[in-house]
């Protein structure tokens, strides 16, 4: 017999969060306009055959710059097809403009691999929403991993462990089938906003005492920004089993207590790593203001995502095993990832988990770095949807014209089919009469003596004098009105024409 306890949880980012997904923004698949990256699938854009051929030649030449310039020159086609809208840092946009500028006089050499790498940005975890735009989210697996680390660290109590130890089995006394982690279910954390904007920020791995602004080669990551209260919502469910693992959680308070025990210590340690004073002061004020909630298990500090450092994922008290390349293993690292957010040096991944009930705190006034990201998101989405609607209207109008032209083409083909069928059912003599009739009807000017059509008419009327009586009369009936309409009764042959028509009519 088991019971499932479900807890609705809200997540508030406290510093930029980047969730790795193994993908990145490549300049061959995006445009930057007015500080916003528009990512798209190049194959989703319908190009004219001539443009498609041109792009194919550029692609064969492996010219990243020419591909980017092609997109810029055809931005009216590519921008409305965007599936991701991401504001970018000024340095990222500057790199892009320097290397892929429309102004060819500034940089005529092809972009090499090093140059292209400076225009790449790691993409955060996402899914596609109802508008076809990517939406950032926090995978439940990342949060569950943080819980796992905190639980192991608390139960282990600083006991030494060997490099090859199965720590889950030795510490939690559980195998895969009966691990206490199997009694925890964490949903993915999704935003309730219609559109959640992310930003591409500059970052680098530096010595702990250094600022990100003192680093060298730039790195760029798409990040969820801090300062957005309860941006994500999810659920933590605990399975309370009669014969469950002895270390399985039986309440959210116990779970949050482990997170706070582990990550509050980590925050105190990292507060010494030369981050922005403004952010650190705000964090200290926030944690002080919610101390009661931290203690009673309704709020927990956590760190999620990439670039958080190995020290946030290992057992502490001097027993951590952190690989340092050629330097072997150590219990601490010498470098950390830092990013530039609005001119401030910040860490990655800090967030607040909160029991999402009706007695929530007024977090808006407590967050260390409030942002206007919600308004920016609405503005971005509104502008893009207007752009896409205009594009779709133009495409619909264009398609309507194509459909009308296709309709006319088919009607013309059908008329021609019927005409050919009728001609095929005529005698050879009457077929020649009908063909001449068509020529005289379709011309829009007078048929003067000496012209090809005039001579053709004279010859046909002469031949018709030897046809059957019915064929002669039908020939005269069809051709006579057109002779007058095309003003052919003129010159020395006028009397000949009138005479032949009269003979054919047998009047």
Quick summary of this structure?
With 507 residues, this protein is α+β, with helices and mostly antiparallel strands.
Beta-strand residue fraction? 15-25%
Total beta-strand segments: 19
The rounded distance between the terminal residues' Cα atoms is: 113 Å
Rg over C-alpha atoms, rounded to the nearest angstrom: 39 Å
Mean model confidence by pLDDT: 84
Structural class from helices and strands? alpha+beta
Task: Describe the model.
Helix 12 (428-442) packs parallel to helix 14 (469-485). Strands 1, 9, 10, 13, 14 and 19 form a 6-stranded antiparallel sheet that branches. Strands 12-11-17-18 form a 4-stranded antiparallel sheet, with no helix packed on it. Residues 104-108 have low confidence and may be disordered. It has 507 residues and is α+β, with helices and mostly antiparallel strands. 33% of the residues are buried. It is elongated, with a radius of gyration of 39 Å. It has 15 helices and 19 strands. A hairpin with a 2-residue loop joins strand 3 (30-33) and strand 4.
């Amino acid at each position: 017999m088991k019971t499932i306890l479900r807890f609705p949880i809200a997540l508030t980012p406290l510093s930029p969060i980047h969730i790795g997904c193994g993908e990145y923004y490549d300049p061959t698949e995006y445009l930057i306009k007015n500080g916003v990256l528009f990512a798209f699938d190049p194959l989703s854009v319908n190009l004219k055959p001539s443009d498609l051929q041109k792009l194919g030649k550029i692609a064969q030449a492996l010219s990243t710059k020419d591909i980017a310039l092609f997109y810029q020159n055809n931005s009216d086609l590519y921008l409305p097809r965007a599936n991701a809208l991401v504001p970018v840092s000024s340095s990222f946009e500057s790199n892009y403009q320097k290397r892929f500028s429309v102004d060819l006089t500034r940089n005529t050499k092809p972009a090499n691999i090093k140059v292209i790498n400076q225009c790449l940005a790691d993409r955060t975890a996402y899914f596609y929403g109802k508008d076809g735009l990517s939406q950032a989210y926090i995978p439940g697996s990342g949060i569950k991993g943080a819980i796992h680390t905190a639980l192991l660290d608390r139960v282990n109590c600083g006991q030494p462990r060997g490099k090859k130890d199965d720590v889950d089995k030795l510490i939690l006394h559980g195998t895969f089938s009966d691990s206490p982690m199997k009694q925890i279910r964490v949903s993915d954390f999704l935003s309730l906003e219609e559109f959640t904007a992310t930003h591409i920020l500059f970052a680098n791995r530096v010595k702990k005492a250094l600022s990100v602004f003192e680093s060298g080669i730039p790195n760029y990551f798409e990040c969820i920004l801090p300062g957005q209260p309860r941006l994500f919502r999810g659920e933590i469910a605990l399975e309370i089993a009669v014969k469950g693992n002895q270390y399985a959680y039986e309440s959210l308070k116990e779970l949050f207590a482990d997170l706070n025990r582990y990550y509050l210590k980590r925050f105190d340690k990292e507060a010494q790593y030369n981050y922005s004073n403004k952010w650190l002061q705000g964090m200290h004020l926030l944690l002080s203001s919610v101390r009661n909630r931290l203690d009673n298990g309704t709020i927990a500090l956590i760190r999620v995502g990439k670039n958080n450092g190995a020290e946030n994922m290992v057992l502490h008290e001097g027993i951590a095993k952190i690989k340092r390349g050629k330097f072997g293993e150590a219990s601490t690292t010498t470098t950390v990832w830092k990013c530039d957010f609005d001119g401030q040096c910040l860490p990655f991944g800090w967030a607040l988990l909160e029991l999402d009930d009706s007695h929530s705190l007024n977090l808006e006034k407590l967050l260390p770095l409030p942002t206007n990201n919600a308004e920016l998101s609405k503005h971005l989405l509104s502008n893009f949807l207007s752009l896409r609607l205009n594009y779709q209207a133009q495409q619909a109008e264009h398609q309507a014209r194509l459909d009308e032209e296709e309709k006319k083409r088919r009607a013309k083909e059908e008329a021609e089919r019927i005409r050919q069928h009728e001609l095929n059912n005529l005698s050879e003599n009457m077929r020649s009469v009908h063909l001449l009739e068509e020529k005289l009807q379709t011309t829009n000017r007078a048929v003067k003596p000496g012209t090809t059509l005039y001579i053709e008419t004279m010859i046909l009327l002469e031949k018709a004098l030897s046809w059957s009586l019915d064929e002669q009369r039908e020939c005269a009936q069809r051709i006579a009105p057109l002779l007058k309409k095309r003003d052919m009764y003129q010159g020395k042959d006028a009397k000949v024409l009138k005479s032949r028509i009269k003979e054919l009519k047998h009047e």
